[in-house]
Amino acid sequence: MGDDRCSRSNSDSGLDSLFGDPSESVTSEYRGRPTVDCLDDVVYGLRWSDKDDVFSPTPQWTVQPTIDTIVLTLRNVVSSHKQYDVEHLWDGTYNKIYSVSYDQTRLIMRVSLPVCPRTKIESEAATIRWVHENTNLPVPKVHSYDSSRNNPIGFEWIMMDQVDGMPLSHCWTSVTQDAKERIVKQIAAFAASAFGMQFKGIGNLYPLRSHLSGSRPRWTKRRLRIISADLRMKTQELPNEFHRKIATRMLILVDRLRNLEDKFFPTPEIESDQSFMGDSDVESTDEDDDTVDKMARPREPTMLWHDDISLDNIMVDKNGILCGIIGWECVSCLPLYEAYRFIEPLTPHGVTQRKLGDSRRVAIYERNLRQHQVTLLRQLFISSMRDLCPGWVSIFEGRRYLRDYEAAVQNCDNESAYETVELWVDAVEKTETSDEVPWHLHERLMG
User: Do the Cβ atoms of 244 and 238 come closer than 8 Å?
Assistant: First the structure.
């Protein structure tokens, strides 16, 4: 569960007046109330399992939503006089996806486990609305949502338009290169628009009437604190000695990363009366460090950043025309140097790793052809951004070392990556400045 990206982000232009619409939220008194356990227990229905990986527990449903409770919710929210056709489509890691049809309307409802209760769905609704109102990127319209559990389903849910078409990952071969280039240019235009409407501070967008307010210190500091607490517990409670030794190594790595933060984010010389975002944090022994961090550093310039515009989340029609971008769950406003991840979807991992046929020669040819196409699309993306937004390109090319530190924080407790992070930290500790390391961690982790 990890980092501190569920803090509020506000721009200086009053844009939070756009964040969501109170009419979209349907939190209210329902007919057919959920069970008392559901309302009293904030993690009702959720269990974390570390059976397969002690360092990366997975969520499990202990209570299953039912079609009947979904229909009852629809009758309360939409109309009690309509006939509803509800079908379970698939399960994600944290969600169950349903199709909802009535009259001539086709919608998607996503019912969510209480991971980041309330904040995740509220942020998604506000983010999609902001993208719709401030950019030309096609996104689904949110019709309604409930970030509480005070509903017949007993879980948070969100309902939005069903985007036509199919994932680009399913039709990569049949879509022409010209169509792929059009899509890349549309994503570049979105990136340029988002870069041009920056925020101050790292965090998520929320509706104006969200239950959440306030903010947190630098997310890397917060995440390292959370990781440290989790690893300390593992060093004492894991039954396997080998796993305890790994947790101890990871804990040492966290401390080394903390010691490197000033090398990557040196404290600027500013006036003592500079105003900063955030309120006091009194839940940890790191409180004094947080106070210094907030008093010494100005708020970070950020932009809205979609970390998963993958081929599975790019929906196209049979001609390769972009129908919509989905997957806005947990999208955040992050530092400008993190915006490079807009080009990650141009690596079609799912396509290139899929079995390509019986002939080894054909498989190798098709794989190499895809990688060639992806290389051309990456070059097109950078070229488009150079024309649309030179400032983005300047940050992309000049701040790779900051992306390395962010990648180290994200992967220091990853059992398959922490040793690579250790090698990178070894190299950084031998340098005078953060940009002298001869290789880039984030590039090596991407493979």
Answer: yes
Helix (H) or strand (E) holding 77, with range, is helix 67-77
pLDDT in tens, 257-290: 999 988 888 755 433 333 333 333 323 334 444 4
Q: How far apart are CA 254 and CA 274, in angstroms?
A: 30
| Distance, CA of 306 to CA of 194 (rounded, Å) | 10
pLDDT reading at 296 higher than 70: no
- SS3 at position 119: helix
Angle separating helix axes 241-264 and 418-429, nearest 10 degrees: 40
Whether the CB-CB separation of 202 and 335 falls below 8 Å is answered with yes
- Most trustworthy range by pLDDT among 18-22, 46-50, 65-69, 403-407: 65-69
Contacts of 240 (CB under 8 A, 6+ apart): 54
CA distance 162 to 290: 43
Q: Cite the DSSP H helix spans in 308-359.
A: 349-352
Least confident interval from 143-147, 305-309, 323-327, 376-380: 305-309
Contact 160, 143 (CB under 8 A): yes
The tokens of 133 are what? 């109102």
CA distance 314 to 325: 5
Distance CA 117, CA 53 (A): 24
Outline where DSSP puts E strands in 18-152: 46-49, 58-61, 85-91, 95-102, 105-112, 142-146
What confidence tier does 29 reach under pLDDT thresholds 50, 70, 90? very low
Structure token pair of residue 210: 């969200």
pLDDT of the residue at 139: 97
- Name the one residue in this structure whose structure tokens are 């097109």: 380
Mean pLDDT of 205-226: 70
pTM: 0.77
Q: Please, which residues bridge with residue 203 across strands?
A: 333
Query: To the nearest whole number, what is the mean pLDDT of the chain?
Result: 81
Cα 263-194-276 angle, rounded to 5 deg: 50
d(CA 122, CA 373) in angstroms, rounded, equals 38
Which residues make beta-bridge pairs with 145? 25, 158
* Residue 231 to residue 248: CA distance in whole angstroms: 7
As a residue count, the chain comes to 447
Beta carbons of 438 and 427 less than 8 angstroms apart: yes
The phi, psi pair for 69, rounded to 5°, reads -70, -30
Split at pLDDT 50, 70, 90, the class of 378 is confident
